[in-house]
Amino acid sequence: MPSRRALIRRPSPRLAEGLVTHIERTPVDYALALEQWGRYAEVLRSNGWETLEAAPAEDCPDGVFVEDTVVMFRNVALIARSGAESRRPETIAVEQALAGLGCSVNWVWEPGTLDGGDVLKIGDTLYVGRGGRTNAAGIQQLRAAFEPLGARVVAVPTAKVLHLKSAVTALPDATVIGYEPLVDTPSVFPGFLPVPEESGAHVVLLGGAKLLMAASAPKTAELFADLGYEPCPVDISEYEKLEGCVTCLSVRLRDLYA
């Protein structure tokens, strides 16, 4: 089994109907979105990630945001239960794909709600946003699933954005980055670096110094380059219209059997 796989899912033809909560709805160009998704997947592949496609979920407008369906810790998959009821059918094909890889599969059960986009994993620490999509019962179930495996779970209030990872992600050295006006509690994180653009707060670690990030954050890309990183920008404008970011579009599977 390759040590690095990324689970992705093709956007639904109903993508333009996706949920929006903190921004105004604007028209989505589906043909362009499909192109952008293809380029995103190619950036992953060209940097050593084998992409694995979950079965399409054509009746799920938000299904392309596959990160929200699951939280991974080592080889254990915790299948999410979104606070947005319309998104719950998205998990079926993801569960099947991960079980096929030999992952141990667990589930969040009622009354718990949890979106994968609310969980920022840095080493063995899992920061989890308590907000509109993830509730206290969901956080308790996350703890129950992963603390016995050595995880440390830290709950973070999240009110200004859709998900915790809409506000913050982390660089390879574990420095948390975020667009400060949208971060509820920067002091929660041991190291916090403010970035100049909202979409600059989102990076996918490709390995080494390479950072997959949105093309809409050129000033942040300059900042990261000055810090010795190698930004790999990709245009995801159609997904940004739906509060999506680069992290939402994949689930990175590293060293499943470590």
Give an overview of the whole structure.
This protein has 258 residues and is an alpha/beta fold. Helices cover 21% and strands 25% of the residues.
Q: What labels would you give this structure?
A:
6 helices; alpha/beta; three-stranded mixed β-sheet; single chain; 21% helix; L-arginine/glycine Amidinotransferase, Chain A; 258 residues; globular
How is the topology of this model organized?
Blueprint: E1 4-8, H1 30-46, E2 50-53, E3 70-73, E4 76-79, H2 91-100, E5 104-107, E6 119-122, E7 125-130, H3 136-146, E8 152-157, H4 164-167, E9 168-170, E10 176-178, E11 192-194, E12 203-207, E13 210-214, H5 218-226, E14 230-234, H6 237-240, E15 251-254
Parallel strand pairs: 1-2, 4-5, 7-8, 10-11, 13-14
Antiparallel strand pairs: 1-15, 3-4, 6-7, 9-10, 12-13
